[in-house]
Amino acid sequence: MLPLCSCRRTAPSSYRVAEGSIWHTGYRITYEADTDLATEIFDVMQRVEQSLSPFLHSSAISAINRGDTDLADSLIIRVWDEAMRVHRLSDGAFDPTVGPLVKLWGFGQNAAPGSIPAAAEVDSCLGAVGFGQCRREGRRILRKRSDTQFDFSAITKGFGVDEVAATLRGHGVTNYLVEIGGELAAAGVNPDGEAWRVAIDIPSSPSGAADSEIDGIKTPAAAANAEILQLCDCAVATSGSYRNYRDTRAGRISHIISPHSGRPVRSSVLSATVVAPTCMEADALATAMMEMLPDRSRELAARLPEVSHAVLIIADSTRTDGLRIEWLK
Predict the structure, then answer these.
(1) What residues contact 179, with CB distance under 8 A and at least 6 apart?
(2) pLDDT tens digits for 227-264?
(3) Using CA atoms, how far apart are residues 213 and 208, in angstroms rounded to an integer?
């Protein structure tokens, strides 16, 4: 068991749970409060969706993508600045303009899975990709090309977790676990008066056993053999290639598309998990590490003192279970 804090309290009181669906995924927020904050929690998630969802026609980012405006709201600006920071830190591995390529390869909402796209199609689509060639001037968003599209989905869930956590703190909540689509932020202690516990998601369960729950978060049965994170005042995000893939005549490809080559990343890395002060940062870094080689991920983690832990799950045919867990720090 890997402790990330030593929080403990002796007399837990009233804990509540708010759960449901948002952004095509589920959420579960456990918090200690005298009043029900479910409405406030849902309202903040809706505000994030109205700002940043590229799948919502009425969202602020959709209006920018259509060219209706080049003015960003305050939420887009905050996400933009963190996305650009991670884009530069990762030498372009994290790129929110890669969405059209993801769709071209048959992934994402409204994508049409089919045959492998022709090289000319990939190259044409790649021409509009390049977050580093876009810039923000105040509220104005200047795109690389008129057909460059922004999809911050790889950081928005983490940002949404942070926003919910901030809302809880604004109402005086000091003990909570916020989970949206597997991304997490924790503070204080759980109902047992101990640090919140979550398991790192393991790509497969060779035993075929049923999933289990730790602190209300469903985890694969194989996670019982992995490290359990004890969380307090930090956030965790995981990115993986093992759930979103398709089989083609050229073999299995994942939804992780390189913004450099325009083609699916072929890597033995199945997932990356990052523990950081904010879920937005953890989310972006975990996504970047899925496009990077393990050595580059290790170097990136080492340069960021605020990242307390980072771990890769790597396919390894030399091991009985076919998996290797590599802690980067």
Answers:
(1) 27, 28, 29, 161, 216, 217
(2) 688 888 999 999 987 666 677 666 677 788 999 999 98
(3) 16
Mean pLDDT for the chain overall: 86
Which of 96, 320, 323 minimizes the C-alpha distance to 311?
Answer: 323
Domain boundaries, the chain: 2-327
Of 108, 114, 182, nearest in space to 151 by CA: 108
Cα–Cα distance measured from residue 326 to residue 316, given in angstroms and rounded to the nearest whole number: 11
Q: What is the pTM of this model?
A: 0.87
Q: How many CB atoms lie within 10 A of CB 16?
A: 17
Residues facing residue 312 across a β-bridge: 272, 326
Fold of 2-327: T-fold (3.10.520)
| Percent of the chain scoring above 90 in pLDDT | 66
Question: Could you report the per-residue pLDDT of 77-87, keeping only the tens digit for each?
Answer: 999 999 999 99
Measured distance CA(180)–CA(295) in Å, rounded: 29
The string of DSSP codes covering 179-229 is: EETTEEEEES--TTSB-EEEEPPPS--TT-PPPEEETTEEE-GGGGGSPEE
> pLDDT for 268-323, tens place per residue?
888 999 999 999 999 999 999 999 989 999 999 999 999 999 999 988 888 887 88
Report long-range pairs for 202-205 (Cβ below 8 Å, ≥24 apart). Answer: 202/226, 202/313, 202/323, 203/240, 203/242, 203/270, 203/271, 203/313, 203/323, 204/242, 204/322, 204/323
Closest CA to 329 of 321, 316, 303: 303
Residue among 235, 234, 210, 238 at smallest CA distance from 224 = 210
Residue indicated by tokens 């325009």? 262
DSSP category for residue 118:
P
